[in-house]
Design goal:
seven-stranded mixed beta sheet; ATP binding; Rossmann fold; Pribosyltran_N; 365 residues; nucleotide biosynthesis; alpha/beta; five-stranded parallel beta sheet; globular; 27% helix; Phosphoribosyl pyrophosphate synthase-associated protein 2
């Protein structure tokens, strides 16, 4: 009879290695879950900060000719996280890995993806650095703007968490049919519309003064032009001025009276705007308020503000570890998305189609 040599058994997993590049223990949780679902051990690696705060990565097993997946969740210290990732990827590349796929459920600096005043598009810089380090593929979730995919010159899979959040609404909110999906600003109206259409619910949009109007006055743009005009522009020609924006007082477009309000967004970090939105909805007669977001950054005082606010429950996924915040605020609930990440890894490793993970996802989602 044909007998498999124990060493040949590995070929079913033909050279799949999963690493977590985090020196922070709470951040390794997601990596453990993914490895567990795939039935593989996490790769042996040491990632640590030296006393002088330099990051050191030592891979403790062979990765030559293997498909390497580096799982990196963003911890409190985002810049260290990025550095760990870059050094890890570069270490795999210089150790002759066949392919290196980064699994960054939350892509750091994704909010800085537009040119503002004299700033820069940091997302593009991070993307270039990752490609330069040797990344050959990226798996991420709910990019702040879908166009960030175009900053990379490698394939990017932007997975969606909305199926998990929709499932939560249907299973955990008993009378969700009496709910209305709310966008706390016109910017997140598209996402709210997507949720509302899938759940066959109504939509409401809040707009008006409570949004933090970012002051343009600090910039030099409002400094008057120097009196001495150059000969280039004809004296009678004047560049038309753009009328400054003035936000109306807060209004809710759509009816929330006697309904459950579900505020949806992609990132919940600074909770002031969510708390203000919840107050507004309470005043307009909503009797229960949920907040749903993919990435729960929940920085600094966020858990305390949520605990003291009119919000009844905040539902986020585990793209970012937030165990500490949950201890401070029992209103925070977690949805596990390790399943879709492990399935993406399995499909990429086996060379299968990814379209199954993107079914029913429209161009606006």
């Amino acid at each position: 009879s044909f007998c498999l040599h124990p060493k040949d058994m590995n070929h079913t997993k033909g050279g799949l290695v999963i690493f977590t590049a985090n020196s922070h223990p709470s951040s390794r949780e997601l990596g453990k879950r993914i490895a567990e679902r795939l039935g593989v051990e996490l790769g042996k690696v040491q990632v640590y900060q030296e006393p002088n705060r330099e990051t050191r990565v030592q891979i403790q097993e062979s990765v030559r000719g293997k498909d390497v997946f580096v799982i990196q969740t963003v911890s409190k210290d985002v810049n260290t996280t990025i550095m760990e990732m870059l050094i890890m990827v570069y270490a795999c590349r210089t150790s002759c890995a066949r392919s290196i796929t980064g699994v960054l459920p939350y892509f750091p600096y994704s909010k800085q993806c537009k040119m503002r005043k004299r700033g820069s598009i940091v997302s593009k810089l991070i993307a270039s650095m990752m490609c330069k380090a040797g990344l050959t593929h990226l798996i991420t979730m709910d990019l702040h703007q879908k166009e960030i995919q175009g900053f990379f010159n490698i394939p990017v899979d932007n997975l969606r968490a909305s199926p998990f959040l929709l499932q939560y609404i249907q299973e955990e909110i008993p009378d969700y049919r009496n709910a209305v999906i709310v966008a706390k600003s016109p910017a997140s109206a598209k996402r709210a519309q997507s949720f509302a259409e899938r759940l066959r619910l109504g939509i409401a949009v809040i707009h008006g003064e409570a949004q933090d109007a970012e002051s343009d006055m600090v910039d030099g743009r409002h400094s008057p032009p120097t009196v001495k005009t150059t000969g280039a522009i004809h004296p009678s020609m004047e560049i038309p001025l753009l009328i400054p924006k003035e936000k109306p007082p807060i209004t809710v477009v759509g009816d929330v009276g006697g309904r459950i309000a579900i505020i949806v967004d992609d990132i919940i970090d600074d909770v002031d705007s969510f708390v203000a939105a919840a107050e507004t909805l309470k005043e307009r007669g909503a009797y229960k308020i949920f907040v749903m977001a993919t990435h729960g950054l929940l920085s600094s005082e966020a858990p305390r503000f949520i605990e003291e606010s009119a919000i009844d429950e905040v539902v986020v996924t585990n793209t970012i570890p937030h165990e500490l915040q949950k201890l401070q605020c029992p209103k925070i609930k977690t949805v596990d998305i390790s399943m879709i990440l492990s399935e993406a890894i399995r499909r990429i490793h086996n060379g299968e189609s990814m379209s199954y993970l993107f079914r029913n996802i429209g161009v606006d989602d």
